[in-house]
Write a structure and sequence with these properties.
The protein has helices at about 5-10, 15-20, 35-40, 45-55, 70-75, 80-85, 100-105, 110-115, 130-140, 145-155, 160-165, 175-180, 190-200, 200-205, 215-235. It has about 240 residues and is mainly alpha-helical. The longest helix has 22 residues, at about 215-235.
Length: about 240
């Protein structure tokens, strides 16, 4: 009998059917991958995946990279497979937090697939309506920083706040992002992204005493410190 690796390479659903009747559908290869993961990475049709799911394939098994079958489907841009795994009961949330979820893996690859995973705890819709895009442009291209900050403070939409942070040109200085940080509607994942975009570790590493309190650099450092404290608090609350 061929191994699961050989069977997956055949691209033959009938071979999968025969193998599922006699082989362990949850065995692992040297990388910790299950047969279901192998079928996904070999771009087998959804019907072949169903044969393993019907035999009790573990949807939540993780390989040595920490990927589940759902995350593999996301990484290989398999929209139909994502839909099928969700129908079969694949879990959206991860015990390792939102950064380890399939939604987080999807958002840098396909907004369409990411939005299929919006039920993930803490996820934010990434595709914008025409009205939202107009509002976003109105904020990001406002030539007055004071006016931009006012508009950001008035936002009540986590979706728009996330889009503002994602699209902001940091050459404009820290004030608009401080306004976003202080907005209670700003989601945790947006704050995490803000810290990365800011390069928060760099600014925290700067000596506060060496910075002029009235300089932009001091405000960047202030934002980094406040973000780190807020994100730490979120982690403790979990």
């Amino acid at each position: 009998m061929m191994s699961w690796a050989d069977i997956c390479r055949t691209k033959n659903p009938e071979a999968v059917r025969q193998a599922a009747a006699v082989l362990d559908v949850n065995e692992r290869d040297e990388r910790g991958r299950t047969p279901l993961m192998l079928l996904i990475t070999q771009r087998m049709p959804v019907q072949a995946l169903d044969l393993l799911i019907e035999r009790g394939a573990d949807l939540e098994a993780e390989d040595k990279l920490g990927d589940t079958s759902l995350k593999k489907a996301v990484k290989f841009n398999r929209k139909e497979t994502v839909v099928r795994l969700l129908e079969a009961g694949a879990r959206l949330d991860s015990p390792h937090g939102i950064l380890a979820t399939a939604w987080n893996a999807a958002r840098g690859r396909s907004k369409e697939i990411a939005d299929l995973l919006l039920a993930t705890t803490g996820a934010v819709r990434l595709t914008l309506t025409d009205e939202e895009r107009d509002m976003l442009d109105d904020i990001l291209y406002d030539e007055s920083l004071a006016s931009m900050c006012r508009k950001i403070r008035r936002l009540t939409s986590p979706v728009l706040l996330h889009a503002v942070v994602s699209g902001y040109n940091w050459d404009g200085g820290p004030e608009p992002m401080l306004a976003a940080f202080e907005n209670p509607a700003c989601p945790e994942i947006t704050l995490s992204d803000m810290y990365d975009l800011l390069d928060g570790d760099y600014w925290i590493g700067q000596e506060q005493a060496a910075l002029n309190p009235s300089d932009e650099a001091a405000r960047f450092r202030e934002l980094a410190v406040r973000l780190k404290e807020r994100l730490k608090r979120f982690t403790q609350e979990e």
